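Progress narrative, work stream C.
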Amino acid sequence: AYPEKSLQSWDGTMAADRREPLVMAAWWREFARELYADELGEAFRPSWGARAVFIDNVLARQPHWCDNVRTSVPETCAGLLASSFEKAMQDLKKRYGEGWSWGEAHAARHRHRPFSRVPWLARIFDIRVPSGGDAYTVNAGASDFHDEAEPYANRHAASLRAISDLADPQASVFIHSGGQSGNP
């Protein structure tokens, strides 16, 4: 088991080589599911996301959202946080076994068009790079919680990286994240 207390010493850095960002993202994903899937019904899946402001409001001021409207026994936010943590740990073990890191689960994928549609060519031309960051960091990399196959994959990130040398502008360097003109 991955003890909840290990997150207490984590500084929130979404580093690719760390385990805590993935634990937190998985916990957040399961908490969001338990929090508002019952109210939204069929509309839940396309609306399933991190929704940081909503989660903050629920935990700080609107705990009535933690009650599952489909049950007769009232649920609490503390109970939902505990049960969603356990579900997150079970899901991570099922997906990744015992060892995992944020970067492996949050890989940035560059699909070649059109070769990504041909499995044996995709293995050669597609690029998959472990990445840090998330939707709330400078090193942006948003995920789609509703993607059951890869809910933590880096789906939306910067495509251009630049280092500008203000003392010598000619020494500045730039690159597209998939390589020059998408050429790996």
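Work stream C, second folded protein:
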Amino acid sequence: MLPNLQSVFEPIPEDWDDNRLMRMRCDSQSMHFYGDISHYLVRRFTEFETMSVLDVGARTGAGTALLRLLHHPWAYTRLKFDPVVALDLEPDVVRFVQHEFRDITAICEDVHNIADNSYDLVICSHTIEHLYEVQPFINQLERVARRAVLVACPIDEKEPLTEGHFQRLTAEGLEKLGFQDIEVYESFQFHNGKCGIAIKYL
């Protein structure tokens, strides 16, 4: 049995309301996106290696925890992630992770405050579409990463944009931001366009 994995299924405090429960345990859209990211990464990193990972904009940490499980140091996968850190501006992310996903670490912090070259791989899943300005944010991700930055986001989203989305991203736009190996695909978790994953090697 893998260490500490039973903590994912431990009961949560009874005083947490239904909304908080849904956000923490049933963040199914995020988990599907991270499954897509895992599949993408193992086709790009084909050697046996272990990388440290920072997930920027991790929300509840559920997707981050899934990625850790899929690439656990004790798993049989070639590509392993250790340590794995979830970063978000939402203070509850720390409580979520401490109660449910103890195999990862959570930080409530702005990425601007993370030291240069701190992690091998920096991941940002379905966050950049929520920003007014993308390039300065990408610059920060690159500053923190040692080897690569990966982004996942909607592609060619239909109008009107989903509530909370301020960017209509395209494969061409990601290419202009310096990303390579852009994979665009249909996701049953997103019905207002396609999804994309892209990487920038540093």
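Helices lie at 18-25, 28-42, 62-70, 92-100, 135-144, 171-176. No further action is required on this item.
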